[in-house]
Amino acid sequence: MIKNILLLAHLDESNSGLPKIALEALGAAAELAHQLNAALSIGLIGGDVQAAADSVANSGAQRQLAVTGPEFAQPRFASDLLAADALCRAAAADLILAPATARFLRVLPGLAHRLNGRVDTHITSVQVVDGAVCATRWFYRQRIEGVFQRDVRPWILLLDSGCHEAYNGPSGKAAIEEIAVALPPEARRTTIAGIRAPKSDTQTIRPDAAVLFVAGAGWTKKQPDGKSHPDEAEARILDFLRLSGASLGGSKSLVDLSGENQAVLGFMTHLNQVGQTGSTPRHPKGLSTCCHGEEPHVVGWRFINERRAINLDPNCGWARGKADVLYVADAFEVMFKVNELLKKTQA
Ligand SMILES: Cc1cc2nc3c(=O)[nH]c(=O)nc-3n(C[C@H](O)[C@H](O)[C@H](O)COP(=O)(O)OP(=O)(O)OC[C@H]3O[C@@H](n4cnc5c(N)ncnc54)[C@H](O)[C@@H]3O)c2cc1C
After folding, report:
1. What residue ranges define each of the domains in the chain, with the CATH number in brackets?
2. 46: number of CA atoms within 13 Å, CB side?
């Protein structure tokens, strides 16, 4: 029986509030605590967590625990691990829910080992079935959905983004219970000197965008005039991203071209690749352009609710039931028109 649920979270990159994915995990934790009649605690890690704690003061959590101070502001395996360990023990947690951020995906498997518990990552939902907690995740690149339970406690679940509605109750004044953690010198050895992020990651990958825009190798292929037009392609795509705020994905063929020194879109890297050997982003809508829609690519569209595609070929993969709407048209022309309309609307 689960008595104590802990929602574990760290501050966002600006070190002020909670990232959206943490609020989604909190939404799931609060729902679960209600269904199980279990106590809910929130455990925060960060430099100064008061504002973040206030923002979730009315979430129904009985306790707000925190490990704070400048040493806990930056992500670092050793200090995050000790902080998370102290919070879990203070909350006597048997079920720990946490957002699947890069920071926690590194640290919480280590926490499970320290607590002699178990951890599961990439969880997409948590439910109560006949009084037992069941977690769901995908296997084999989102082709098989597994639902499972575990007896071992504590059980740590890292929830993927976009799978639960984010908690958005009114803020209040939180009474924080500070948990003291003394860091030994070996837990302070790593410090962050600065962040160097690939251009495409910072500028074009936007997980919270309403639309995913995917570019395929067709943008770099010879067009009806017998020539390729990479500059024009780049302008069309960047204009659309700027005007719409969409996130950018790429097909494997397109991102691989950069490795073969062919004419490519300069802002596209392997980080943008969507598919079986790429990512599986979550967005309400997706628009595929100049991309054939082959199965290994379409696997990455598993969580796009509404799919549209533009392709010159009426027999492309999208036409075989993989897109809700297929425009058989020239993507250069369509995106030019779309951008003009967006400019007009915004003016
Ligand atoms: C094990 C394995 C794993 C793979 N994993 C992935 C993966 O993770 N992600 C992925 O994307 N692929 C993956 N692939 C590759 C995949 O099978 C396809 O080869 C790839 O997705 C094709 O990319 P593309 O559609 O951009 O290019 P192409 O197949 O070259 O298609 C280009 C398309 O552009 C269209 N076109 C050209 N000009 C225009 C225009 N002006 N307007 C409109 N349309 C135009 C053409 O009609 C054509 O359909 C994998 C393959 C294997 C074997």
Report:
1. 4-187 (3.40.50.620), 211-346 (3.40.50.1220)
2. 22
